[in-house]
């Protein structure tokens, strides 16, 4: 694994994990040696997360842990296996993108075996299309694979190892893209994707403390060298922006996480308002009812309608133009036809309709 860090607790899978146990050599199905003591803060975070969300996620089924072999998911796996003895299933995604992926999978397999946790390696094709971000393509492929495995294994939830610094990075990344509230809300603690619940119990925890605790116990982890590549925006944020931020504002991760929670709460209110407004304007929405709303509220309900009923989204500029044209359409003959996302929003008499691009050609195919 090129570029891996030989210092501290992180390790290349080609070297034995410095955990005082058996070496994690690829293909070595290490015999279970029992669990070391889990970090108290991580254990408490897992227990609190479960108390908050157990009523929503199914109380039945095993608990999945998305285990990359990195430090954070290692700490999470240990805490989960301690909290739910015999009930945890580890899932490792082999992205197939770098030569080291085999070694990551071998390390994860050996570590899970030492702790007596069944692990499944999921192979994905995470290559990105032209113009698509490689990070986004890999993330989408990863969640698809995790959700598919969770459904196949009947898992109650899949837990992820994101912590407070990851949350702050996500917020900063959203700012660099000019995101709206959904982006500023960053990563939720609990979310359903493709019919599967995903949970992030460690979002309030300090990642540095988490690593220090693993190191103190001699528990090893793998370091993905692509995390150091400054070609990726997230890495530049972590390697260049965050150190300066942490020096000037030592509590930045905690306060940023609080801001993300405020944004998430505000977005939830906007969604509730949009659902109420949609019930009032109808589906498809009536133009006159839309015109009775303020421009921002009109955009809010149409955004919600497009997302929930058509799985589509538009840009800021497109929505501003929608609001402008709807306000201007005061006569019966005033046509509206606008591009929004991968489709068109148009007036049909008293209502507005959305026609996705792929549907526009469907009648010719039939
Ligand atoms: N290859 C993978 N297989 C399974 N889960 C993964 C994988 N990559 C990431 N995850 C999950 O997503 C979380 C956040 O991803 P991130 O890219 O920050 O991971 P990492 O830095 O490689 O590993 P870690 O977060 O464990 O230190 C991980 O903690 C883990 O739960």
Automatic annotation (TrEMBL):
Sequence ranges assigned to domain tRNA(Ile)-lysidine/2-thiocytidine synthase N-terminal in this UniProt record: 63-238
Catalytic activity: cytidine(34) in tRNA(Ile2) + L-lysine + ATP = lysidine(34) in tRNA(Ile2) + AMP + diphosphate + H(+)
Assigned EC number: 6.3.4.19
One GO term of the biological process aspect: tRNA modification
GO terms of molecular function: ATP binding; tRNA(Ile)-lysidine synthase activity
CDD domains named in the record: TilS_N
Enzyme kind, highest EC tier: ligase
Keyword Transcription: no
Keyword Ligase: yes
Protein name per UniProt: tRNA(Ile)-lysidine synthase
Record organism: Tepidimonas thermarum
Source organism phylogeny: Bacteria, Pseudomonadati, Pseudomonadota, Betaproteobacteria, Burkholderiales
């Amino acid at each position: 694994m090129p570029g891996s860090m030989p210092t501290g607790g992180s390790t290349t899978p080609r070297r034995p994990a410095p955990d005082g146990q058996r070496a994690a050599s690829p293909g070595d199905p290490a015999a279970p040696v029992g669990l070391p003591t889990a970090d108290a803060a991580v254990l408490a975070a897992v227990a609190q997360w479960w108390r908050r969300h157990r009523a929503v996620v199914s109380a039945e089924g095993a608990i999945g842990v998305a285990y990359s072999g990195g430090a954070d998911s290692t700490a999470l796996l240990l805490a989960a296996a301690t909290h739910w003895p015999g009930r945890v299933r580890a899932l490792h995604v082999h992205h197939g993108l770098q030569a080291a992926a085999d070694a990551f999978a071998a390390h994860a397999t050996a570590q899970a075996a030492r702790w007596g946790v069944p692990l499944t390696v999921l192979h994905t094709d995470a290559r990105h299309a032209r113009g698509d971000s490689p990070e986004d393509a890999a993330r989408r492929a990863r969640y698809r694979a995790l959700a598919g495995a969770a459904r196949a294994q009947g898992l109650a939830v899949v837990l992820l190892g994101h912590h407070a610094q990851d949350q702050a990075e996500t917020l900063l990344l959203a700012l660099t893209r000019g995101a709206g509230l959904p982006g500023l809300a960053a990563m939720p603690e609990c979310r359903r994707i493709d019919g599967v619940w995903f949970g992030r119990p460690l979002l309030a925890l300090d990642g540095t403390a988490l690593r220090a605790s693993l190191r103190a116990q001699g528990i090893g982890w793998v370091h993905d060298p692509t995390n150091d590549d400054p070609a990726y925006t997230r890495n530049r944020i972590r390697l260049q922006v965050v150190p300066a931020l942490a020096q000037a504002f030592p509590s930045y991760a905690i306060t940023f996480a609080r801001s993300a929670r405020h944004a998430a709460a505000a977005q939830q209110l906007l969604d509730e308002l949009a659902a109420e407004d949609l019930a009032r304007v109808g589906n498809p929405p009536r133009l006159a009812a839309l015109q009775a709303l303020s421009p921002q509220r009109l955009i809010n309900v149409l955004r919600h309608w497009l997302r929930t009923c058509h799985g589509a989204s538009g840009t800021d500029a497109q929505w501003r133009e929608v609001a402008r044209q709807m306000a201007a359409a005061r006569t019966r003959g005033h046509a509206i036809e606008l591009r929004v996302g991968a489709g068109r929003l148009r007036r049909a008499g008293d209502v507005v309709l959305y026609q996705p691009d792929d549907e526009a050609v469907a009648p010719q195919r039939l």
